[in-house]
Amino acid sequence: MAQQETNAVDQELETPEMENQEVEDTQQAEATVEETAEADKAEKKGFGKGKKKDKKEDAYKQQIAELEDRVMRQMAEFENFRRRTDKEKTSMFETGAKSVVEKILPVVDNFERGLATIPEEDKGTPFAEGMAMIYKQLMTELEGIGVKPIEAVGQEFDPNLHNAVMQVESEEYESGVIAQELMKGYTYRDSVVRHSMVAVTQ
């Protein structure tokens, strides 16, 4: 009987301590749950910030790529414009030079006609020699800028270079070959300034 009372007292004494321990365990568990929840919340918040940062970086990268593409396009357009301008300048220069050459050619023709009509006995005179020297100088300057006479007599007729104004019979040349040059033709930098007027064998 005494032993039973002792056990009952012991149980009564142990009960408050056990209750306190359980309260502490419960509080620790709740604190752990709260810490875990806060950690999860912070992690989610941080992840959200990282996601926003990644989106901004992607937007910046896309904007940079668009600007680089725009710059490349503008550079290509400028290069095309520069080439086109250079080509137009060259074309305008050649057109102007060709026009000047066309106006000089009748002078060359008259020089040749004048020299051809000098009598044989007057060919050694200072006047005749001076005319010949001027003609030679003129032809040298024209050749220096790219003006060349078109070969005609003895050449096969080429409609791109020659203008046939008549047909003749010839024992020296075959049919379709130029037998006579009536007016000399010229080219300027591989472009025909004036076609040769020729007579072609039948």
Key structural traits:
single chain; Nucleotide Exchange Factor Grpe, Chain A, domain 2; three-stranded antiparallel beta sheet; three-stranded mixed beta sheet; 2 helices; disordered N terminus
CATH superfamily of the domain at 146-202: Head domain of nucleotide exchange factor GrpE
Span between termini: 161 Å
Strand residues, percent: 5-15%
The CATH top-level class label of the domain at 146-202: Mainly Beta
Number of helical regions: 2
Q: Briefly, what is this?
A:
This protein is α+β, with helices and mostly antiparallel strands.
Helix and strand layout, with pairings?
Blueprint: H1 2-116, H2 126-144, E1 147-149, E2 162-168, E3 178-183, E4 186-188, E5 191-194, E6 196-201
General description of the model:
The protein has helices at 2-116, 126-144, and strands at residues 147-149, 162-168, 178-183, 186-188, 191-194, 196-201. The chain has 202 residues and is α+β, with helices and mostly antiparallel strands. The protein has a domain at 146-202: Roll (Nucleotide Exchange Factor Grpe, Chain A, domain 2). The strands form 2 sheets. A 3-stranded antiparallel sheet has the order 1-4-5. A 3-stranded mixed sheet has the order 2-6-3, with no helix packed on it. Strand 4 and strand 5 form a beta hairpin. The protein is rod-shaped, with a radius of gyration of 53 Å. The relative contact order is 0.07. Residues 1-14 have low confidence and may be disordered.
